[in-house]
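[step 3/7] fold_predict: job queued, chain A
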Amino acid sequence: MKYINKALNFSLFVILLVMAVIMASNVFCRFVLKFSIYWADELAQSLLVWLTFLGAALAIREGSHYSFDAIEKSLKGVTLKIFKIFGCVIIFMIVAVILYWSTIVSVGIRIWIMPAMGISRALVYVACPVGCVFILIYTIQNLFKIVKS
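[step 4/7] structure written:
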C-alpha cells in the first residue's frame, strides 16, 4: 500500500508541476514573445482531467471527500459504524459501475486523435478508469479500517 500511495502522490505532483510550467510558459510566450504554444491548452486540459480523477482518489484516501458530516456527528457507536460501512459499500458499487463504463468508453474512443497533440483521446479518457481503481483500493482499505475499529 505504501508504494500505491507514493505512486499517487508522485503522479499528482508531476501533473500539477507540468500544468504550471506549461501554462506559465504559454502565458509568457503569448504576452512577451507574441506567439502561442499551439498544444499547451490541449495538454493542460488533459492534465486537468487526470488531476481531477487522481485527486478524487487522494480525497478518498485522506477521508476528505464529500461526506455527511452532520449525520456522522449525530451518530455514535454501532450506528456510526454501520453508517460508515454503508457509505463505503455505496461508494464501491457506484465506482465499480463507473469503472466498467469508463473503460468501455476509453477503449471505444481510442481512434479519436487530439488535433494539437496528435495523440489518442483515450489517453485522457483513461484517467477515469485509473482514478476509479485507486478509489476502489482506498475504499476497501477504509472499509477494513472501519470494520476493525
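[step 5/7] annotate
The radius of gyration is 19 Å.
Residues 20 and 44 are 9 Å apart (CA to CA).
exit 0
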